[in-house]
Amino acid sequence: MSPFKAACIQVTAGNNLMANCEAAAAQAVEARAAGADLVLMPENVAMMESGRTALVLNAEPEPENRALAFFRHLAREIDVWLHIGSLHVLLDDGMIANRSYVIDPSGVVRASYDKIHMFDVDLGLGESYRESSTFTPGDRAVAVDLPWGRLGLSVCYDLRFPHLFRALAQAGCLFLAVPAAFTRTTGKAHWHVLLRARAIETGCYVFAPAQCGDHSPRRQTYGHALIVSPWGEILADALERPGWVMAEIDPLKVLEARRKVPSLDHDRAFALPEPPVEE
Q1: CA–CA distance from 29 to each of 11, 106, 136, 185, 216 (Å)?
Q2: Which Pfam families does this UniProt record tie to the protein (predicted)?
Q3: What's this model's pTM, rounded to 2 decimal places?
Q4: Could you tell me which CATH number the domain at 4-263 has?
Q5: Where in the sequence numbering do the catalytic residues fall?
Q6: Left (φ > 0), alpha (ψ -120 to 50) or beta: where does 229 sit?
């Protein structure tokens, strides 16, 4: 369980697929040159588009997905473990999967994960989102073995469902990936505290690459790509501009945190309360 360096990328993606891929790749190349062994990219790294019609028109099936081919080549070229936060993958029924990929330094896809929880919310002042109208939710948790330990996968809104992360930690994950395109509204209120909570609850390192800035007049994201320690300390924060942050990751710190507070071993069965009586 040797230490390694992880880098989280922050970008402001638009609606030009290849331009977005190249911008993310430039950040990855810089991070790798600075010593990163694992590079993580945000949700929607290849496309930030709004509206169902535009999303479907710009999504591509996995075998022909240009962004996936581009990033597989990038991983080989710079010899790095690469986590693609998510791409829009067109499904046979016309819906889209919001799909993460983990690619090894030889360009082989080692794991993929479809976002489970759909962001269907009304935030007020006309800001609302209905991911379920466009995306098909995943139905399985996914973990992948890296040279330094097991990484659990999630995407953005999954962050609000702590049982997913507890299950990943209890399945042997030492690290959790939370790539996101958090809205500016929810990010200001909840981003830092939720990520720190997931790290503390699981005793895992949390890697959270992010989208930032103005993508369109109606779509702004919060930024603040974070790396959080198993004790809940913020090790790196990318703030609000495109770029990348990096931290040294020591897997033994996970074991240390879990020895201090072994809550993952303290689950107990309990009866649920009765549902409320309807009048």
Answers
A1: 14, 16, 32, 31, 27
A2: CN_hydrolase
A3: 0.96
A4: 3.60.110.10
A5: 43, 115, 156
A6: beta
